[in-house]
Target: DNA-3-methyladenine glycosylase 2 family protein
Amino acid sequence: MSPVLAHTALLAAVPPYSLPASLAAMSGFRPSAGDQSIMVDRVRKGLVHPDEPRAAVVVEVSERPDGRPGVRLAVHSEHPLSTTGARQLEHRVGAWLSLGDDLRPLLALAADDPPVAELLPYVAGLHQVRFTSLAEGATYFALTQRSTQWFATARKARIASELGRRITFEGETYVAFPGLAELVELGPDGLFTFAGNAQRALRLSEVLGGVAGLDELALRTAPYEDARAMLLGVRGIGTFTANAILLRVLGRPDDVPLEMAQFTSVAAEIYGSGAPSPAELRARYGPYVGWWAYLCRTALGVRKRQSRMADQAA
Model:
């Protein structure tokens, strides 16, 4: 059975928004390398079919033809798509691309911070690109513990390849990452082959089981400190993992562990020897400090890539 066009929609975004900026950010985000097909003007990705959990759909996201902020969504499927299922996919794509995020308060603060203002053109119109599910994000960040990003990415990709739902569209196969319930059911023994050793498999099982037992809606909507406390109550989740899940999966920018090396190095690269302290950054950027960290890290990466390309062309 070949996939057919099952649904289209025009999704709005809070301005400023740029799909090309999102595509560029995806291209530079290693943990999602190979998870989607990124083209010049669009991206295609496999997601679990909302009405047929044993099947997948291909979502294609491109620019809106009317020029308004947002994207055009096209869903290709081998199975019919209900109205409710279509709305669920719209919501999921909107969350993946953070279309509803209003970055204007952050951008106003950044515009008055000269070293950061210099970086803003590199990420003009960028909204945070998130992991597409709590299962995927929790799996990845659990796998990064006492490991490298490269190995965590490879192990996550193997889980998707061996357990995910597959769909072939226009000659390319797309895989939808499995859900929490399916991963939890494997237990430490079933996760061993993906985790690489018994200790990591046990930790991954504990994290996934603990996250599955939480109320995802509460994680998204409860006061930030309460949501973080819920995650920190899960065995195997520490400060970095809890904050990473809240920001990169659930889109909550209220805080990041600015004291950790990956963030102090960003501040040092931006501001030099007079970099503000974590407390000063939190005081300046308040509940948007997570977006500050995301935009700055992304912008620095874009600037480095452009510099390398310029050097190679010279």
About this structure: The CA atoms of residues 123 and 258 lie 21 Å apart.
